[in-house]
Each structure stands twice: as structure tokens, then as C-alpha cells.
């Protein structure tokens, strides 16, 4: 059988799936950040007329999914699968959105790496001839994440300087076997690595080794260097994690300059009091769906490596004294 | 492009992946049930020497994964992906097992349907030529589920008669592009349905409509009838859900007789005080890895439809008054 694998971890698509459309919904804080103009919709407040933050998150995801479907002009009967996930227990935002959307549903959990992971798996389903079109989407919400992972949101606990701010938002793309748009040409699924970091307020440090590992293996598998990409962008390493990932790469003999950036660093500016940057499933999803897609479409970027970064802990595992494993999943998108 | 889809929801594999091996680990209660002799290993107690039930669950999953890998005789460098999930928040059992195993990892969340869903997606990755071999595994644990979803385990709350008992166990299979063993020939990914059931102590009722919907669509897509299967087996509908699913099918004009059974009904006997039967990711996984695989290998079954059933709620969504969406994912396994 003619395998589409190259090296240890990378697959190269025979008929690279097209990203037909992308849609993003964000909260007001994200709407005040430097990428403000790139989002499809900015909500007025984090509840957006709903009775709870959890309902608001799920509705926000629905809105992003519906926005991407509408923009893609794909008929709903030709959308074969929906792949989605989020950070809430039992990925409840995605489950409820899947109930509304009505498509055959594959739930994905990769923590904050879920967008890149779902884009990779969705591309495999299309290139493997199992689907004509696949709908992908993820969400996160500052206030639902805060009370689930940390303290009651209203408590307003003092945050560590290495802590990141969970992005309130949802991002979605429609992948297709044909059409016009940027294409997903390759994917590198990551291994779970754990360097012993136990500080849940420093997820950047927990994820950095896995992100660096995936970038190294990706480049090795495809015999490429960082210079072959206009942008290498991690999902939500934040300031601390991005610095560490660059350092791990440097010590492994791989120099990355300005082309290695992080969605969590890009989405807020320093005046917004988010400390180490943004995080959450939506962080990479809304930056990709807006800023990065727009620059791919305008050909300002020819080739981008999106590396979703996931911190695979739970509040229970942290309380039980376990360290925090990380993972990085990469997809190559070409103009 | 030559699509491998038939009808609305079903894919038929061009080169059906082989199930090279299967391995199951269960707790003592499951080891005292009617399927006792079919499991690979029965633990002496639910902690199995670990400091917490959560650690015990993850270690049990590791053991099942390692057992399946060993039995498959596949070299670890030829295992291209691991797909796994569980019921704990942030699928922490699977994440920690993935850290130990070291394979590129795709986290799946389908609640108790995760085994069938992972087998379906894993088969697509192999048949789509993205992988030579895929390791699939799931776990659940009575004591970790009890305290996460319901009440402190030690409290020993009175259980409703419609409630099910979460299976303590882990099941794993190795799927391969070639070799000897039963083959996965088709898969039907389910839609998320919600008929308004809000009773978290009656998950069978919440899941029954979705399971029936998947069976109906599967038969329609492939132009088959229940008589084309030696066994149609749902994951964990339990006594209540199985009865309801049969009723939904009957009212839709589809008669199922003794060939429609449920892993949650099969795994315990009436003397074991489990009320409506077993549940949990492991319920279908260990019954499939043991009993069903053995009867496929001995050709007692020629063709089986395994329909994983998932209840897609969270304790938070239930407390917020939301109803419980269900899903059913089906795979066809042939001797």
C-alpha cells in the first residue's frame, strides 16, 4: 500500500484539502486587542444574552460553525462530518453545538491544541476519501475556564505573571476536497511529553518541550528548515513558553528568528493585563481563522506551520500532585 | 474523487483494517460476572496498588494498551498513532497513558461511545493510507466516575433502578493494514440527538434514540436488515435503554430479535446488584475485546455491528438544567 507518511510522524496529503471558509467570534477583551479588525464578530459582553457563561460558550461555537458553513457556500447535506472540541469537562460546548448542527460528529480532545488536531484529522478524512467536506470548530471562554480550572471567576484571584488569559472565542473552518482557498498540505501529529512541570500557572513551560519536539520532527521528516515557512506559529505558548520553545530548538541546533511567533502572544497587547498572553482552544482558532487566513488569502504568507499546543492536565490530576504533560500538533497551510 | 461513502452516514473500507489483537483488564466485580473467563486480566481490587483510583484507571489503560501491542507482535516503531479517550475530565487517563506509550496521540471524546468511535476513525486513518498500524484504547473506572459524575464514592448513595454501574476496566485493540484477524469493513458515525431526557440516572433513555437512529441509517445506507448481522450490540444502553432502542426501531418498522443485545446487559448478571446494567467507555471495550472478538475469531459470529453509545452531558450541564444529548457510533466487524 502506498503510504502517505514521510519520516516518523508526518503525513503529506495527495490531494491537499482546501480551506473554503473561516469564521471567528470573540469576546470584548479580544475585540480590543491588536487583531481586533481580523475577527468576524466581536461580542458586546461575555454572556451575550445567555443565562450562563457555559451556554454562552456553546452558542458562540454554534455561531462560528454556522458562519463558516454559510461563508463556504457548501450545502449542509454535503457536509459529511463535524469535528469539534473545547476545554470544558466532557467537551460539553462542542456536544451541544453538535446537537444543533446535526452533522455526524467526531469529538476531539487535545486541550488547547484541538483546532490544529481537528484540522489534521479532518484533512485525513477528506484526503482518505471518507468525506467531501468537513466542518471543524473549537471554543474556549475565559469565565467558564476560570471557574472550572482555577477559582470561582467572581473571586478575582491574583494571577501569577507566568499565567495566561483564556481567550473567549470560537473559531471554525470548512475543509473541502475541492474549491478555492489555502490548502492543508501536511500534518504532524505530536507525542505527549512531560518534563516534570507541575505549576498550573505556567502552562507555557509545560507545553514548550512538546511543541519544540513536533517542530523538530516535522522539519526532519520533510527535510525542511524554519526558513521554508513564512510563519511558524504555536497555539498558546504565551511569552514564557515561546521563549522556552525557541531555546529548546536552539539547543537542538535549530535557529528560529522572527518567523516563530505564538497566537497567545499575538492576540493581546501588553496594556491588556493578561500577563504571559492568551491561551485556550480559541486562541489559535480565532487567530488562524482571522489574521493568518487573511494573510494566506492575500498571499502575504505562502506557507504557514500552525502548531497547536495542548496542556494535558486536569484540576484533579494537579491536586493529586501529577506533573503536566504537553503535546503539539502541526498542520502546514499553503496559499 | 472516488468516495468511500455510501448513503448519508456510512463509509465502506476499500482495504478493511484487520484487528490484530485485543486485550482487556477489568476490576473484581466484572471478573465475577458472566463474562469472567473472556477477559485478559482481572484485577484483585479497584486500586490495584496505586495511590488513587484515578492513577489506577490510567495504569489499567496502559496495561491494556501494552497487552494489545505485545499480542499484536507489531514493532513499536510501526505503530503510527494511538487513539484513546475516557470519561474523566480532560480525558486525563488517556493523556497519561499516551505519555507512557510515546506514540503520536489523537485524543477522542465520545463519552461511552469512545471505543467504537476510535475504532472507526482509526480504520479511516489506515484505509486512507495515513498509518500502517493504529493502537486504540479506552478506560473507565467505577470509583473515579462515581465521584466525578455523582456523589463522593464513599458516601454510597442509594442508586435509582434505572441507574447503571460504571464498568471498571480498559480495553484495547491494534488495527493494521494487513495481517490475520477479524476486519473492520464499514463505519457509521452518529449524529447527536436529544429527546429532552434530563435524568442523569437514566442515561439509557437519553442514548436510546441516537443508537436507534444510527442503526436505522446504517441499515438504510448499506441496504441491509438486522438479519444480516449475527450480533448487533450497543455499548451501554443497559436494560432500560435497550428496551427503548428496540421500541424505537420497531416503531420505525425494524424488528430486532435476540440478535440485538447490549454490552451493559451482558457484562453483569442480575445477582450483582447493578440495577439497569453496566456503563462506561470500558463496558463495550472489554466486552468487545474479550467475548465478541473470541466469537469472531472462532467464526461463531460472521458479522457484528458494534454501536458505541454515548451520553454527552457533564455534571455542570445537568446542574444547569440542560437535557442530555446522546450519540451512537457504529463499526462493522467481520470474521
Automatic annotation (TrEMBL), chains A, B:
<dbReference type="InterPro" id="IPR016039">
    <property type="entry name" value="Thiolase-like"/>
</dbReference>
<feature type="compositionally biased region" description="Polar residues">
    <location>
        <begin position="150"/>
        <end position="160"/>
    </location>
</feature>
<protein>
    <submittedName>
        <fullName>Stage V sporulation protein AD</fullName>
    </submittedName>
</protein>
<feature type="region of interest" description="Disordered">
    <location>
        <begin position="141"/>
        <end position="160"/>
    </location>
</feature>
<dbReference type="GO" id="GO:0016746">
    <property type="term" value="F:acyltransferase activity"/>
</dbReference>
<dbReference type="InterPro" id="IPR038369">
    <property type="entry name" value="SpoVAD_sf"/>
</dbReference>
<dbReference type="InterPro" id="IPR010894">
    <property type="entry name" value="SpoVAD"/>
</dbReference>
<dbReference type="Pfam" id="PF07451">
    <property type="entry name" value="SpoVAD"/>
</dbReference>
